[in-house]
Amino acid sequence: MHEDAIRPWFHRSWIYPRDPNFIEKADRVLDLYAKQWQGKSLEPNDYVICADEKTSIQARIRKHPTAPPYSGEPMRVEHEYTRAGAWTYLAAWDVHRARIFGRCEAKSGIKPFDRLVDQVMSQVPYKTANRVFWIIDNGSSHRGEPFVERLQKKWPNAIAVHLPIHASWLNQIEIYFAIVQKKALTPNDFPSLQAVEERLLNFQTRYQEIARPFSWKFTRKDLKEKLKLVSDHIIKQHEPAAFQTLETENLLSWNEIQETSSVYANT
After folding, report:
1. Among residues 221, 218, 228, 220, which one has the least CA distance to residue 251?
2. Residue 214: is it exposed, middle or buried by C-beta count within 10 angstroms (0-12/13-18/19+)?
3. Does 15 map to a domain?
4. What is the DSSP letter of 53?
5. Contact 171, 91 (CB under 8 A)
6. What is the side-by-side strand order in the sheet with 81-94?
7. 35, 154, 208, 230: which has the highest count of C-beta atoms within 10 A?
């Protein structure tokens, strides 16, 4: 194994994009990040919000106190703990103005997410804005047409923009959640559930003081290249001879990719 460089303990996971409108939905989000909508530039009074939930943030009370780090030695955290409950942290990120909003709720769901929307939309400049685009994934608390209708009924200037299925990686709020996880929640060692809420909201306040818009560089062109790799991989894997003569400059449609994948999955 050493000579052949075989390392079976290494692996990479992947998931197949199964949304038939993946490209169309993703392009809309990427356009908003580039301050575009339906081929036109956003107006000064338009806003773009990314929102989601970070669920099951536990308060873990360690059996023994955590030992702080010192020169040459890492922090030492007791492995055993008792659970003191958990929060769902809901947050919304203003993409172009670097404003963060958030709240802790006992559980996720339609009502908690609607409270996050109200928290943002009830404030200036959003309640008086021309348009406020809400970029969200397909979680149950904000899925599909019911959320679109619910949002516009209460906030007529708000527009829901759903990501494709399995595309949370295109949601900028996930960048903020990763920062929160690293800077505020690791290691998970809290004396109470209230301490978790205080840490999250205090970090949110501090982050707002230094926040800058994320330097987002992934474009429509980058997406097309990524999806082309998927279509090429499917054909190369199942029809290596055909791949040699395939005009790969053109990206397969998702219907063609799905049809190809389905054929070989059943053979």
Report:
1. 228
2. middle
3. no
4. E
5. no
6. 99-105, 81-94, 46-62, 131-136, 158-162
7. 230
The residue behind tokens 């919304």 is: 92
Beta-strand relationship, 131-136 and 36-37: unpaired
In a domain, residue 167? The reply is yes
Domains identified in the chain, total number = 2
The reply to whether 154 and 172 lie within a common domain is: yes
Range of the domain at 139: 22-65+79-210
CATH number at residue 163: 3.30.420.10
pLDDT in tens, 93-127: 999 999 999 999 999 999 999 999 999 999 999 99
Same domain for 157 and 192? yes
> How much is the pLDDT for 194?
97
pTM, 2 dp: 0.84
Cβ contact 129:96 at 8 Å: no
Same domain, 117 and 227: no
Residue environment code for 45-81, b if the CB has 16+ CB neighbours within 10 A, otherwise e: ebbbbbbbbbeebbbbbbeeeeeeeeeeeeeebeeeb
153 vs 261, residue with greater confidence: 153
Domain membership of residue 169 (yes or no) is yes
- 32 and 130 housed in the same domain: yes
Hey, what are 222's tokens?
């980058």
